[in-house]
Design brief:
Number of helices: 5
Strand content: over 45%
Helix content: 10-25%
Radius of gyration: 20 Å
Oligomer: single chain
Order of helices and strands: HEHEEEEEHEEEEHEEEEH
Length: 274
């Protein structure tokens, strides 16, 4: 059957609105503590810093999903408090799939950007790197020896992250005339439920390279807790709206999805004739 720009109601009923599923997802998630003032600066209202300034980042390979071909993804999160409920607020989500990027940005409000993501794992080691615009802005190495960097990390992860911690994202659309928003900033939440088949504690080290467009280095490492390697089937459940935000208060935080470019050749540049 040939495709069409217009979908039938039968197709919409069949494919629309189902939870997204990632089969046998291979992930390494690293956890560290940063400075409290950094997280306070990066969180938009009404989100508040948790009692402990925790950061986590993952690098993942998705060999099969129920919505698009295989791809890789990464993410950077800070622990946030919303009315007493701790959750992960996403600052950045590099991705290798245009389908996954569109779905995550338009439906979930995730700040996704296309990137190059490299990873290599064995029974005992894991290496990963994320690159955009020619900069490897995040590199991670881990050794899976059933221990963390910090001997108290297991207790910290259990206390602050628990099981199926919610995600906090903000959906919005910048105004077509360039002033304000067409879709008011709206805080939404979802849960990622995991059926874990492989779980390994790991000692990890990360290195940053400065990047104007992907400033992961802003999340300074004060105390490296460690990493967790998993293979699991993950289901991103349907989300729900929490509340609308004050657009002027949110405005400084709404530029996670785009790069800022300055054409330094502009004064001397003139179009060639055709």
């Amino acid at each position: 059957m040939m495709g069409s720009f217009v979908k039938s109601f039968a197709d919409i009923k069949k494919y629309g609105g189902r939870p997204t599923t990632f089969y046998d997802a291979e992930m390494l998630t690293v956890y560290w503590e940063t400075k409290p003032e950094i997280i306070e600066r990066l969180l938009p209202k009404p989100l508040k810093p948790a009692s402990r300034p925790l950061v986590n980042a993952f690098v993942a390979d998705y060999p099969a999903t129920n919505f698009c071909p295989p791809y890789r993804e990464a993410g950077l999160f800070v622990l946030a408090d919303y009315n007493g409920q701790l959750g992960n607020y996403c600052l950045s989500m590099p991705i290798t799939s245009d389908i996954g990027m569109a779905m995550g940005r338009e439906v979930c409000g995730l700040p996704k950007k296309m990137a190059d993501i490299r990873m290599n794992s064995s029974e005992r080691t894991f290496e990963g790197a994320i690159s955009r615009n020619g900069v490897d802005f995040f590199n991670i190495k881990a050794t899976m020896e059933d221990r963390f960097n910090d001997g108290k990390a297991g207790g910290v992860l259990e206390e602050y992250y628990g099981k199926d911690i919610p995600l906090y994202n903000i959906k919005y659309a910048n105004a077509v005339d360039g002033s304000g928003f067409d879709l008011m900033p709206t805080l939404v939440t979802q849960r990622l439920v995991s059926d874990v088949k492989v779980y390994k504690a790991a000692e990890a080290s990360i290195t940053f390279q400065e990047s104007e467009h992907d400033p992961w280095s802003e999340l300074e490492v004060v105390n490296m807790l460690g990493a967790v390697y998993t293979v699991s089937t993950n289901v991103l459940e349907k989300g729900k709206v929490l509340e609308q935000l004050n657009p002027m208060e949110f405005l400084p935080y709404c530029y996670l999805r785009w790069d800022w470019w300055e054409n330094k050749l502009q004064p001397e540049y003139t179009p060639s004739s055709i």
